[in-house]
Structures are given as structure tokens and as C-alpha cells.
Amino acid sequence: MSDSNEKARNSVFEERLAQAKMARKIVFFSVLGLVLILLIVIGSGYLYVKNALSPMDQENNEEIEVTIPIGSTTTQIGSILEDSGLIRNSTFFRYYVRYKNESGFQAGEYVLSPSMTMDEIIYELKDGRMLEDPALVFTIPEGLWLEQVVKLIAEHTDHEVDDIMETINDPDYLNQLIDQYTILTDDILDEEVRHPLEGYLFPARYDFIEEKPEIETIIEAMISRMENVLMKHSDMLEDSEYSVHEILTLASIIEREAQKSEDRYLISGVLYNRLEEDMMLQVDPTVAYALGEHRYMTSHADLEVDSPYNTYRYKGIPVGPIGNPGEDSIVAALDPEDTNYLFFYARYNGEVIYNETYEAHNETHQKYRHEWVEAQEEQEES
Q: What transmembrane ranges does the database entry give (predicted)?
């Protein structure tokens, strides 16, 4: 081999070796750069969170009076606190409250300080005192149809049923509410939905300082309460395959079918099983809602009503809620019992019997159907 060839080979080898060293240096410094960027991001995030949770001014013990109105959402509370100079960022407050699964904030008057941490402020907000005794108090029971809720509001206020209905069905007002509340979406504007706010008026006791609150004040207090309840269970909502609208629809069915808490979760499990099996839900309360009349029992003729609410004619979850569910039914709709049951039958005495097959379910139906027939006959005679 000639000297010139040997020199050429050595030159190529040295060039490749230099290139390999350069490549390793590039990779090393690239990785080092990424690690440094990651450390900076983590450090910056840590400092941001630490700063957001810390007092606005640890040395400032100034007393600041804050008023939290009835029905305030965490978003509204955060805005009030930020505007008062007590927290740095209302959005961070909302997500921190959700992360901590905090709830139970009370309407009332508070004396807070810039020297308080966010956790200290959250603690104080759970112990509010009313500015004065409520001038108006009424309670909405669980499971009522929207028409019944409206009648109760009218009975306790000087508002007329027609005026309330006109307000809550006004397209401009509904769009305003959709912009205001995260739980409200365009689903409520579906033309087939009987009442857009059906299912969103949380059943509870309501206290109002005003003797004659506006219709909007009452309705928004009820929607705010529903949003607060749903946000308590935001983790389950995010994990659910169904939308808020669909969850409230399932919860409203569960509310109408179950009297006991344990039955709510089992019935929810049955509904999920039937949906997974592509079976019709076939629950009687949806037929009553489709007819617009409460029924002790449904007839074969009733089952034929052509309505998107009729789960004996149409598969899947109905177009909207069939009542206003309470928290237990909402949680049951989010967290169904794991079961093999595909059928359930609610007896007149409140007992619910579950079956895996149609044959067993039909036997149960034939055995206890007379209870509902007798109850209906007694009602007709009275």
C-alpha cells in the first residue's frame, strides 16, 4: 500500500472522528439545553404558584370588607377577590379551588386582609354571615318538572307564572346565560327540548335578602347552585364519556325512578349497561314527560307517543332532562354501580327489583303490576 493511500485513509478517519465528536457535542449541548429549559419552566411554574398562593402583602394587615352575593360561582368570587386586591389572579383561584375540590362557600360579608394566603381566604369564605335576615325563603324539592318549579316560585313571590316562563324562554336571555355559565351550552337551545333550563335549576332551599327579587336573580341563583354542585365533581365530569347535558338528563331519570340512595347508583348502572348494549332505555318517567302528564302507570297507548323524550321509541339518552335532579342523583349518573343488571322494576312501595334477563324482569312485572293498578284506581275514586 502506498504512503499516499495510507495518508488519505488516515485523513478520512480523522475527519469522521472529528465529525463524531462534534455530533456528540451537539447532542450533549442540545440535551443540556432542553434540561435547562425544563428546569426553568418547572422553576418558573413553582415560583408562579408559590407567588399566587402567598399573601398580596404579608406586612399589610389592612381590613378589607368583601361581600359575596347569594349564588356566586367560584369565577365570580375570584373576580371579587381580585378586584378587592386580595388575590393576584381570579382564574388561578378558580382552578385552584377546583384542584383542591373546595366547596361550601357561603354568601355573606367578610373582613379579609392582603396579608392572608389564598388557603386562609378560602377557609374564611366557608363561614360567612348573612348581611341581614332573608326576606324571602322557599325550597324546591328534588325531581320536579320545570313547570312545577315555576309554580312554586310564583307562589312565593309576586311574579306571575306566565312572566317567569316568558323570561326563561327568551332567546336573548338564554344566550346571555350560556355566556355566563360554563355548564350551559347550545344543547339547551335544541328545538326539540321542551324547556331549555329543565334540569339546570338546582333543588334546594333559597334565601333572598330582597323581599321581591327579580326573576333573573332567582333563576341565576338556582343555576349558580347547580354549577357549584357540578364543579365539586369536575374530575368525574372530565372523565365521563357524556356531556354535562347528558349527565343531567340521566340524573333526572334516576331522580324520578329511585327513592333510596343505593338504588340511584344501581339504576345508573342499569342505564349505562343498556346504553352500552345499544338497547332502548325504556323508562316510564320519560313517557310521562313526553305526554306532559304524571302517570301512576303507563299504558300501551302511552308508549306510542312520538316524542324525542320517549325512551320506548328512541334509543340513547333523551334530548334533555325530564326534571331537576339533586346532587345524589347527579353523582350516581357520574359514578354508576358496576353491575350485570339490564332491567329494574320499581314497586309501589319504593322497592326496586333488578334482573339480568327480560324473562325474569317480565315475571317481576307481572307479579307486582297490580300494586300500581290498585293505586291508580284509588286515586280515580278519591
A: 26-49
Let me know: does 267 contact 254? Beta carbons within 8 Å: yes
pLDDT at 298: 81
Gap between the Cα atoms of 138 and 344, Å rounded: 34
| Paired residues of 206 in beta bridges | 138
What rounded mean pLDDT belongs to the chain? 86
C-alpha cell at 182: 360554563
User: pTM, whole model, 2 decimals?
Assistant: 0.71
The residues near 14 (Cβ < 8 Å, ≥ 6 apart) are: none
Q: How far is CA 149 from the centre of its chain?
A: 20
Give the CATH H-level superfamily of domain 64-124.
Answer: Endolytic murein transglycosylase (3.30.1490.480)
